[in-house]
Design brief:
The complex is a heterodimer of chains A (about 375) and B (about 260). In chain A, about 70% of the residues lie in helices and about 0% in strands. Chain A has about 375 residues and is an all-alpha fold. The chains are: A mainly alpha (about 375), B alpha/beta (about 260). The interface between A and B is medium-sized, with 27 and 33 residues.
Chain lengths: ~375, ~260
């Protein structure tokens, strides 16, 4: 970087001196990254207009031209390494933006269509005697809550105990390999198949044509159990083995070690995993359509006849909206919005759980 | 409070691999016994076999006899959980339970073993154990804080307090100071010297000075080559091992001329 000072030992001539300033080279100003990309995107407007304007075409061209312009200018000014960095940054950011488009579009559409009927009546009245205007989803909200809670009640003990077997007792033996394989298969079961299974099961027990809330809960459990097993298994594997050994060395039996040491240590992950698995099934339509059906009136007994649930409610409001149709369609949008809010709330709860129950290390 | 352990013809396996072969030794009560030797020679494996922690690893098993108090620890009728209540263990890395406070960590062994105790009793256990572990003065004002928030040396002493809170006969220590700085190491060595009046202590260490400082008896483990089982080469009073060992290999290892 500079001439050697007399005190420094002189180096052999062969070793080239590293010049930090030269290596760093010219730098584009900080705003250049975005500026160049926007410039390129604007350039893309001209060819789009020539080819006949369409937003989709413009977006594609803007990304391509913006990336090329950024890369080209950076290459000319900053050299190869920096320009590669900018190229990859452009590609990654674009991919992210494209991935966000359907999400925002979906949320925007559902909110703008559904917010109109998100009123008190929607939460307090059912569909009894409603053909056109008015009506609500009180019965469907209650139905969704009851069926999902019942499904959780069935799935969580089975799922958590299975995961405990796999992690703590399975020892990677033949049985645990089979369970893991079957859980993987279950993860891939289409939801309609789960519904048909539950329907067939309850038809065998109660005769054909049976519709019960509990049948829906069983169908949802088929979908939920593998998710619970998978997530709980991963969480239990994260519990350090040293903690189990510490408990064993104190003379604590294995079962008590699992209950008092392993599960509390994994509590945050357990809560998160279970909440996310609820979010996974709360919006299922197909299995509930077959097993639970739909009603217009409130039914809170899952062991007695049909119940309404939000996804099925939305489905029927859309396909059989009544006369005139716009009121039913609006109710369907609002039900969809409510489902999105529900899933979002469950995700927030999951994050909250993982924060509150995380092992504390503050001094 | 302290008991002798007699080990005879002990072979220790991981699956089909024989890790330790033919150990015969008698561990004296109320003393510190140090186990030294190169890495992978089976010291820790042997130590873990003394309280049946070895078999926690899938496929691990033991042949031979370990007798304490006239009872063979590997008798089919012996409950490994009961063995571990008698023979406590401190591990290489401090492992306090992260969900528990300092207080709960100390009484974890008592509580988890199902004992319902009065608050005054557990208070007494906590104070006694932490005082024995030289930690009481540092933490007495924050017993309700998480145990994982202590420094490494304090965590290790917390683990020692937890181990002695259940009043075991024997305390096994698997390189308890290898993750600690010299000052914490000194604190734990002083602690061992105090504890040996009440417990039988067996310590595995890579630190030869530590073995020389704290132990009465020293065992030297070695193995002939990779894939060979480890053996107890020499077991003698520490002074003899470090001044005039019977076996050439021991002398080579201690003087650093190993291999």
């Amino acid at each position: 970087m500079s001439t050697p000072t007399p005190t420094a030992p002189s180096r052999p001539e062969a070793a080239p001196e590293f010049d930090l300033a030269a290596e760093s080279g010219n730098r584009l100003p900080r705003f250049a990254g975005w500026g160049l990309f926007v410039l390129g995107a604007l350039l893309a407007a001209a060819p789009t207009a020539l080819l006949g304007w369409s937003t989709g075409l413009f977006v594609v061209l803007a990304i391509v031209v913006g990336t090329v312009v950024t890369w080209g200018v950076s290459r000319a000014v900053e050299g190869r390494r920096k320009s590669t960095d900018r190229l990859v940054t452009c590609l990654v950011s674009s991919a992210f933006a494209i991935a966000m488009v359907p999400l925002f579009s979906l949320v925007y559409t559902v909110v703008s269509n559904g917010v109109g009927r998100l009123d008190a009546e929607f939460f307090t009245s059912s569909m009894v005697g409603v053909i056109g205007e008015g009506g609500g989803a009180y019965h469907a909200i209650m139905g969704t809550l009851i069926v999902t809670a019942l499904a959780t009640l069935i799935s969580v003990p089975i799922g958590v105990l299975t995961a405990i077997y796999l992690v703590e007792y399975g020892n990677r033996g033949r049985l645990s390999k089979w369970i893991t394989f079957l859980v993987d298969v279950m993860t891939g079961i289409p939801s309609i198949v789960a519904g048909l299974f539950a329907y067939a099961l309850f038809a065998l027990l109660f005769g054909p044509g049976v519709r019960l809330g509990v049948a829906g809960a069983v169908a949802l459990s088929v979908l939920m159990i593998p998710v619970v097993v998978r997530s709980v298994e991963e969480v239990l594997k994260l519990v350090p083995n040293e903690l189990r050994e510490a408990a064993y060395a104190l003379g604590v039996p294995k079962w008590r070690t699992i209950i008092k040491v392993v599960l509390p240590t994994a509590a945050a992950g357990l809560g998160t995993g279970i909440t996310l698995s609820i979010a996974r099934v709360v919006g299922e339509t197909a299995p509930l359509l077959i097993t639970v059906g739909i009603t217009t009136a409130l039914n809170v007994n899952p062991f007695d006849g049909r119940m309404a649930t939000l996804p099925v409610y939305a489905f029927y409001q859309l396909t059989q909206p009544g006369v005139p149709p716009e009121f039913g369609i609006n109710r369907a949008w609002t039900a969809a919005l409510l489902l999105i809010i529900l899933v979002m709330a469950l995700n927030l709860i999951a994050r909250l759980i993982s924060r509150v129950f995380a092992p504390k290390t503050n001094r | 409070m302290a008991k002798r352990i007699e080990v005879s013809d002990l072979d220790i396996f991981y699956g089909n691999f024989k890790a330790v072969e033919g150990v015969n030794v008698s561990i004296e009560p109320r003393s510190v016994t140090a186990l030294i030797g190169p890495s992978g020679c089976g010291k820790s494996t042997f130590l873990r076999s003394l309280n049946r922690m070895h078999e926690v690893i899938p496929g691990a098993r033991v042949e031979g006899k370990v007798v304490m108090d006239g009872q063979n620890l590997y008798d089919p009728d012996t409950d490994p959980v009961a063995v571990r209540r008698q023979i406590g263990m401190v591990f290489q890395r401090p492992n306090p339970f992260p969900t528990m406070s300092i207080y709960d960590n100390v009484v974890a062994g008592v509580r988890l073993n199902g004992g319902r105790m009065k608050k005054s009793d557990t208070d007494a256990i906590v104070e006694r154990s932490l005082q024995s572990a030289n930690l009481w003065n540092e933490v007495k004002d924050r017993l309700d804080r998480p145990g994982a928030g202590l420094s490494g040396g304090q965590q290790q002493r917390l683990c020692i307090a937890r181990a002695i809170a259940v009043e075991p006969q024997v305390l096994l220590m698997d390189e308890p100071c290898s993750a600690l700085d010299p000052i914490s190491t000194l604190a734990i060595e002083d602690l061992m010297t105090e504890l040996k009046d009440r417990f039988t202590i067996v310590i595995v260490t890579h630190n030869l000075q530590q073995a020389a400082r704290v132990s009465e008896q020293t065992g030297f483990f070695n193995l002939n080559g990779v894939g060979q089982p480890g053996r107890l080469i020499e077991f003698n009073p520490t002074e003899k091992i470090f001044s005039n060992p019977d076996v050439k290999a021991t002398e080579d290892y201690i003087s650093g001329r190993f291999g």
